[in-house]
Amino acid sequence: MRLSAAEADLIAAALGLEPRDFIERYTAVTADRRSLTLIERPDGGCIMLSAGNLCRVNAVKPRQCRTFPEGWRFPGYETLCQARSNAET
Q: With bands split at pLDDT 50, 70 and 90, how would you rate the model's confidence at 19?
């Protein structure tokens, strides 16, 4: 889940963290080194999901999350995205 600097700041504030602490704890640099991305839980889920799979930062979630699934449609998306596949069944 890519993050802009503004999104990282908003999420940090929502979690009560300083931006630097949030970045060190919950993000990684993308492979192209152009932005940050949220890290995943060991099971592959979003690190911002609670134990009940609810978004802990729903009010300030990144644009990429807000546009899912409509903004994610591309050939083969259904094989890559378990959430979409499960929602359709």
A: very high
Domain residue limits, the chain: 2-88
Contacts of 45 (CB under 8 A, 6+ apart): 53
Task: Say which residue the tokens 């600097």 belong to.
Answer: 5
**CA atoms of 26 and 37, how far apart (whole Å):** 8
> The pTM is what?
0.72
Sheet of 27-29, strand order: 2-3, 36-38, 27-29
Can you tell me the distance from the alpha carbon of 4 to that of 70, in angstroms, rounded to the nearest whole number? 20
| Residue in the block written with tokens 């060190």 | 24
Cβ pair 48, 60 in contact under 8 A: no
